[in-house]
């Protein structure tokens, strides 16, 4: 088999351009992107939580509520005011830790000006890879030059990928238009998307296993995670209601790890944290809208998480963003008909209690309340058995 003498030449095709890094202009004047990335999740949380609270207060879209209106004050073991206080503490912790970490890191601004260099490096990698394609084809007995010539008239770009230098009289000088175009797409779209999915995978994995551990380990559940499960009927602004240790190790640490591993910039962190905040709000909002994008993507939406908040669903649906780990490890609740029957029974018993007593079940958290929640007692089923 004869190969062109230039087929194994891997010297850089063009000199690397000179790129000078400069600080990126802040998205909002007089406020660094680093600080904005820290406080933006709180702003998004307040807006999204306030929106759903408005729907609750005005009894709007009641048709799409998971639970009957006002059931939360009949079943929950914490008042809305107590919940709001804890949520405020959560965001104060998040902002304080973020600002401290930013200060310790020197409040370094995001640098820009190297896009041309990054495109060049990507094009260089693509060019090297392209030169391997015809060599690989020749090794397996496919005449790359013949295939390239046959396709050149119909698809010149693909012909260039398959045959490369075989279609020219000598080595190609500089990058081809295809290589440059692909490099620009990789740098502007491909790499950011990869970073986003890496960050998502880190957070989703971390939260699934730590969340599940908090349910498996009775001590962790009783002392830490049971506080979040005082909300049998969740609502939007109670999404991050929980113990301060859960705030620190389950939520904040997961996003710190995701940002470091995926190497997110300040503006990428803004987008990712805003997405995560809206997803968390959506999971706890108590509404199932037919246009919910999260539920349509992978069925991990408000119903998926609300089931986990019921006493009979505590051992299922641990995931927050995807259903990957739940499906893989068999912790997804699959009995839809059974869930519907349980929900209906709970609503009937709640309505019966409301008729017999004007007192709400929401009480100030104490040790007895913690035991009830921690043991996952089926309060309403227990009452039903006594009738």
Could you characterize the architecture of this molecule?
Helix 1 (33-57) runs antiparallel to helix 3 (80-104) and helix 5 packs antiparallel against helix 6. This protein has a two-stranded antiparallel sheet. The chain contains 16 helices and two strands. With 387 residues, the chain is mainly α. The protein has two domains: 33-110 and 200-386, no CATH class; 115-185, no CATH class. Mean pLDDT is 83; it is low at 1-12 and 360-387.
Order of neighbouring strands in the sheet with most strands: 1-2
Shape designation = elongated
Instruction: Report, as a whole number of angstroms, the end-to-end distance.
Output: 88 Å
Query: Would you tell me the structural class of the helices and strands?
Result: mainly alpha
Domain module count: 2
The average pLDDT value, as a whole number, equals 83
What share of the residues does DSSP label as strand, in percent? under 5%
**Major sheet: size, sense and barrel closure?**
2 strands, antiparallel
Question: Would you count the extended β strands for me?
Answer: 2
Q: Classify the helix fraction into a percent range.
A: 55-70%
Low-confidence stretches: 1-12, 360-387
Order of helices and strands: EHHHEHHHHHHHHHHHHH
Radius of gyration: 28 Å
Summarize the helices and strands and which ones pair or pack.
Blueprint: E1 22-23, H1 33-57, H2 72-75, H3 80-104, E2 111-112, H4 115-139, H5 144-152, H6 156-163, H7 177-216, H8 218-223, H9 244-262, H10 266-284, H11 293-298, H12 302-308, H13 324-329, H14 336-356, H15 367-374, H16 379-386
Antiparallel strand pairs: 1-2
Helix pairs in contact: 1-3, 1-10, 3-9, 4-7, 5-6, 7-9, 14-16
């Amino acid at each position: 088999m004869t190969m062109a003498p230039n087929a194994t030449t891997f010297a850089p095709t063009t000199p690397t351009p000179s790129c000078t890094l400069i600080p990126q202009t802040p998205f909002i004047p007089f406020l660094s992107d680093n600080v904005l990335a820290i406080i933006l999740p709180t702003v998004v949380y307040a807006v999204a939580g306030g929106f759903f609270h408005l729907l609750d207060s005005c009894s709007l879209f009641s048709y799409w509520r998971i639970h009957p209106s006002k059931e939360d004050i009949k079943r929950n073991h914490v008042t809305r005011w107590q919940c709001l206080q804890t949520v405020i503490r959560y965001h104060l912790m998040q902002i304080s830790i973020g600002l401290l970490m930013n200060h310790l890191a020197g409040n370094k601004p995001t640098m820009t000006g190297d896009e041309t260099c990054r495109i060049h490096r990507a094009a260089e990698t693509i060019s090297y890879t392209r030169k391997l394609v015809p060599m690989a084809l020749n090794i397996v007995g496919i005449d790359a030059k013949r295939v390239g010539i046959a396709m050149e008239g119909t698809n010149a770009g693909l012909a260039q990928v398959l045959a490369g230098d075989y279609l020219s009289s000598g080595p190609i000088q500089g990058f081809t238009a295809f290589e440059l175009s692909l490099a620009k797409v990789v740098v502007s779209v491909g790499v950011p998307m990869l970073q986003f999915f890496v960050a998502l995978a880190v957070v989703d994995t971390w939260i699934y296993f730590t969340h599940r551990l908090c349910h498996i380990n009775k001590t962790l559940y009783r002392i830490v995670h049971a506080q979040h499960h005082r909300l049998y009927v969740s609502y939007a602004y109670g999404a991050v209601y929980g113990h301060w240790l859960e705030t620190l190790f389950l939520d904040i640490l997961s996003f710190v790890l995701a940002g470091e591993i995926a190497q997110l910039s300040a503006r990428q962190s803004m987008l990712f944290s805003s997405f995560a905040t809206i997803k968390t709000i959506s999971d706890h909002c108590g509404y199932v809208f037919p246009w919910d994008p999260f539920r349509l993507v992978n069925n991990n939406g408000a119903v998926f998480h609300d089931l986990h908040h019921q006493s009979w669903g505590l051992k299922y649906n641990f995931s927050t963003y995807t259903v990957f780990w739940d499906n893989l490890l068999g912790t997804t609740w699959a009995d839809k008909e059974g869930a519907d029957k349980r929900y209906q029974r709970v609503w009937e018993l709640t309505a019966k209690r409301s008729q017999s007593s004007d007192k709400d079940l929401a009480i100030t958290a104490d040790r007895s309340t913690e035991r009830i929640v921690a043991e996952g007692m089926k309060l309403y089923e227990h009452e039903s058995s006594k009738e």
